[in-house]
Design brief:
Structural class: mainly alpha
Order of helices and strands: HH
Largest sheet: none
Number of helices: 2
Radius of gyration: 15 Å
Strand content: under 5%
Oligomer: single chain
């Protein structure tokens, strides 16, 4: 439950920040988050395949 509250709080902070920073900074941040999520997905997929 704490994780969910923290995630929603961070989403609100990041969304609010995105409205006030220049577009290039927002795009770079979005690309970094996308790369992190893609790396996490690949790592999880590999770990899931190893356990089968």
């Amino acid at each position: 439950m704490f994780f969910l509250v923290l995630a929603l709080f961070l989403l609100g902070v990041l969304t609010g920040t995105a409205a006030h920073v220049p577009l290039p900074v927002t795009l770079v941040s979005a690309a970094a988050i996308l790369a992190w999520l893609a790396a996490f997905a690949v790592r999880e997929r590999r770990a899931h395949r190893r356990h089968r």
